[in-house]
Amino acid sequence: MFTMNTKIITLNEKELKEEQFTEAAAILQAGGLVAFPTETVYGLGGDGLREDAARKIYAAKGRPSDNPLIIHIADTKRLAVLTKEVPEAAKKLAEAFWPGPLTMIFEKATVVPKGTTGGLDTVAIRMPEHAIARKLIQVSGVDIAAPSANASGRPSPTLAKHVIEDLDGKIDMIIDGGAVGIGLESTIVDMTGEIPTILRPGFITKEMLQAVVGEVKIDPAILEKPSADLKPKAPGMKYKHYAPKADLHIYEGDLQKVVSKIKELTKKNLEAGKRVGIIATEETRHLYLEGNIKVIGSRAAEETIAHSMFAVLREFDEEEMDIIYSESFTSDKLGAAIMNRMLKASGYQIENLGD
Ligand code: AMP
Ligand code: MG
Questions:
Q1: What pLDDT shows up at residue 259?
Q2: Ligand 1 mean position to 233 CA, how many Å?
Q3: Lowest CB count within 10 Å: 12, 16, 94, 325, which one?
């Protein structure tokens, strides 16, 4: 069903000219799809005000159509058009964090079709900072609905190569703008209730939000395994996400115990003829002796872990591991966002080995 010729263009975010966006803008204006880099991950963009464009996005990703899309804008003036009401707290957060990796949920205006919002009466909106994303929105004049540009269920794309792997032949164009900066999807905050509530943790932490608007809640379903009575408010958070093809197990607790456990299990599985991957950190890399060991980043700088996480999971897919063992990371600040993705990737297979 997908036999499109996907055009791939390369742009340098530091040297952008308007005419470099003419073709991509025309595709979006005609209801087509363009994947592009943002500071979080690569997005798969289509016109957020057109049901037919939204349908194409869901089809290309193989995404369930009850999982709503985030609309990307380049000017806060669009908020008045796309939403029913902009609460004061949202204005403050926009002022503090836009453009940037923050998505806010509002009551939607009627111009936003339910095909974009997964049938909901609310709409998710973000103003990205990446120069290519901003230019694409400005030149096209389109409010760009863009989920992450991966096939549904696969790790989010942090390089154009990941987008090509998943979507080549299924969309009109891919803009290669090099590696993204953050590597984790945006923080999502629901602004429709009394108190702003985090529906998906990200680079903008609870502490950062609280410093601007006072009390902020966290949807209890995001650090635990979702269940019948613990349903996440962001529909997308209930799906098994980011899943590597291998069986992923995470160990937490005293780091020495974690390393010993992973070494012991690695040895056993290698002897049984299995292909074993290990997710280590700069600090622990030298402690492992066998297995396919990858450094995900440094414990001393969690942003390096966020930046490499999805790429490491994809590399293990390419190298066809049977089983992957991972250390765990802290669960506060950026670590909360990292562990949220790692837990989902593992299908919540985590064991605490004690302190
Ligand atoms: P992605 O675009 O892949 O980063 O996924 C978008 C995320 O935003 C998903 O987890 C969605 O469920 C969530 N989302 C988008 N719109 C809404 C909304 N109106 N209410 C709650 N969550 C939303
Ligand atoms: Mg996604």
A1: 98
A2: 9
A3: 12
